[in-house]
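Human: If only I could read backbone structure tokens as easily as an amino acid sequence. Take your time, and here it is.
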Amino acid sequence: MWQIFRILLRLIQELQEAVDDCYNLNGWALPKKEFEAAYLGRKNTSKYAFLDANARLVQKELATQADDQAHFQNAVPEGLKGPAALLHSVSAAIETYVPSRLGFTLWGCSRVTARLPLSSKSEESSYRPFSLSQSNYEDGKVLGHIDFLENRKLCVMLLLDDDGTELILEPFDSRFCEGAQMILPTNRLVVFRQDMFSYTYRACGSGAALQVQLVTQSHVPNTRDLRVVTVPSQLMNDHQVMVRSMACHYPGNCESQSGYWAVSTVSCDGLVPVPVTRWDAAQYYSAEEKEGFTYAIHGGFCNDDDVIMFDNDFFGISETEASIMPPAQRLVLQTGYEALRNAGVSKASARGLPCGVYLGDSGCDWPQLFGHVAGPQRALGSQQSIGGSRLAHVLGLRGPTLTLDTACSSSLVAIGVAHNALRKAMPEQVDPGILPHIKMALAQGCNLLLSPRMYIQYSGPHMLSPRGRCFTFDSSADGYARGEGCGSLTLKMGPSEVEAQECLASLIGSAVNQDGRSASMTAPNGPSQQQCIRTSMIESKLSASEINVAECHGTGTALGDPIEVSALRMVMQERPSPIMNTSAKTNLGHLEASAGMAGVLKCVNILKSSTCPSNNHLRLLNPHMDTNGYPVYFANELSDYGVKSGISGVSSFGFGGTNARGDLWGRCSRGARCTELLDTGAWVLQRQLFYDRVFHYGNPGPHASDQIYIAGSWDAFTSMQEMEKQILGEYRTIVRLGETGREHFRLLVNQDPNQIIHPGQALAGPRSLALGPDRKGKVASWLIDGILDGTGAGATYMVKLEWGFTWERGEYRIVTWEPCAQEAPGRGLPSSFNHSYSVVGSWTAWKCQEMVRSQYEEGVWITSVRLGLSGQEEFQFVRDRDWCQVIHPAASRVTRADVAIRGPDNFGHGRNWLLQGETNEIVTIKLEVLDGRIMVQTCYEKSKHSQEWQKKTMADIADPVFLISGLWNGWGFDVMTKAGEKSSSTKDPSDGAVFRYDLILGDDGIAEFQIVMDDWGGEHQPNASKWLPAMNPSLKEAQRRLYPNKPKAV
């Protein structure tokens, strides 16, 4: 900020020079008359010219310019460099504060615009372009202007010589803000919300001024912007498979994705002498290579904590069973859950999830070490096939589960099988028989070194390196070094637009084949490797020139490396630029069954950085590798491959002859080539209806032929009701609230489910902005809350829509509603509808199970449940199978009768009533919903114990408790009071749903805070780092560790 102040001081001294330079500019122009108010304000009397001030141009500004001056811009004169720099410095400072203060993220700014008053009417006529014509729709001017109207947020204006200038701000919507009128002195900088206000600028004096507009991300990505990446054509469909998350535990303290990348980039390896916690290496070592001994005493080992420690309570496993479980299975559980959690799948949401588990595991020495252990768990501890199944069982995953063993290629084969399971069958294909409807898969690879047995076995044929390293591609290659570790990644099919922006990479091709009859069963087969690579490339429609990096199997053997490089050469040699060859084994050792997974995770990191790490221990290329005519670079330092998005291929070959290949595409998200937006092409489909309206009707907004329909929860969205048209753009109808006293609704244009007018979220209030019409509103709706309004069940409401468009304001939609003063019979009132209620509980796998309506009591639904082995069950209710209408308690696992009932709403996740009793005891659950009153009753058949919760109506309703937490109260909790209340004990529902809290700001004038509803214990913590001090130390530590049940968990 001091830099801004220094610029301001210089501006005072250079003010006159800046004004003179403004008058000496060339290229003055005026916008088209229709567009003028949006850019230069109402009743404009000034002209403008663009400065070339290195702005981040993100909008199509041709709409503002005269046709013959569309590409003219001035070099910044000396006197205007300071003011232009100030505007950009202020813009950059504003961008930092806007997300937390105003709730949106700025994408960039327009070019600096200079303004001067028009000298005469004749000058205005000379600068004024022709009015809008059909050609302006074809050349993009109209769409560019509409795009600007949708994304503009702030206007920053600097007055150079305008003493006494008048600025008038008038709100577009008076519900949200008030207008203002200001007289501004010279050298004043003004910032205002251009999306909320129209403005009138009346200059005095010379009238010289500069301005820029700050905008959010455009609906239509600008492919010329270096921050935007367009996905390749192979992914321009709903068949794309995205890598959503990763997790790993590898040698060299690689406990995370960032840790693994750090080890890769600093040319470090994680190979060490065998730790004494595994075995006494000296007892089995022989430098003379005696039979029954090993000459290799190094390996890549994970932290002992990863192998030894395990939070069995978190996974619901007894201590006895955990003590017999192979460490590999423990690591699979931990790493698999970490990957799922990184993908947004919690332990609760994993239950019943149709997610496949595909594990590459070639076994370990645990069954031989603990074969003497007796008991029923011995079989589970000794079975290699149980690893993936145990993870699915513990988390409740319902997808297919496979454990694959193809030796060194196991984990990459697992990824290929998962990829194949996720892909949709083409229309002419028959659906596969292995659960084809999964959209998510967890792929894993695991290998642990627990005894010297395999060291001794591999020393016989001299497969291991005596020096304990993998000298991949090097002339000194003499075998490989063994390593251990576990890696996991989650794959998702056809993710949403938001998930696509957050994905790490895309798996675009995979292939698996066999060597068949070759020189020997363990010898690599070059032609089969070539065919495997080509098959994956054919599937992903890739040419050799498109692949930037090859992650090689590269074990560092004298025979394997030349054969692999030769196979790559035959496939990749037709290319204009070199391909980079690298191998993770130079950092981690050969992880055997987990090697392919380590290569894939490394490739994801490479794509995220557009950088290829070096191959460790590479001094002189292996002379047996034929690279003639092969444009290749064996990286021996951190190397930028020159583009902001790329493709990397991974190869893995099992010593039994099973070859696997995977090709990944990804964009750079860190470093010098960092990008911010992925253009998936989804905007084409989303904006098609919008473009159709613009080209057919001349602008967005309503047309005379349009009719608006309303659909709502009062009849479970089973019908659409036509709204009454007052004039073009104004519609209204009457609705009646049902038995809950709360209903939500959305609006549709011409009964088209792809043209929905909706708010930005589910159950939005009357102040929420309306969006659309588009197809994204199928999960968003407005909520009429008769309980908080004091009207209750059966009340009638008038719902109104105001929809229009102007070239100054853009398209606007205003949805309001208010209670009818008296009963309004006839038009708009929905007929009676028989609603249904379902119980959702732990015994139903959290799926809706419809309750039985009582024949004797009005508004009563009944069901019963038999308690399971734990003697506990949780439940809540759902109206009409609509997850926006959940009836639930105000806290989690509720047994106390004094906890309030909430809903119907969409805040019920994790908030359930808890049944506790003896195993197999039958409990009857009764739900009564009548006239806005909700009652829940449970009755235990054996103990005759019953309990009741009630939600009363009108004046006796219990409002939600809102708690505020901030620095002024030590991040503790204070209760907010309802508007009109002097204390929390006096409540008047007619006051509306407004809660207040008064505080005094500190010296800096800033106070950060969070608001929590109902929950005194802080179970639903806001996602903000400064809120963490409000948690007790153990809870804060538990959140960091991911596993909250044991202090020693890692």
User: Anything to note?
Assistant: Residues 53-72, 981-992, 1016-1050 have pLDDT under 50 and may be disordered.
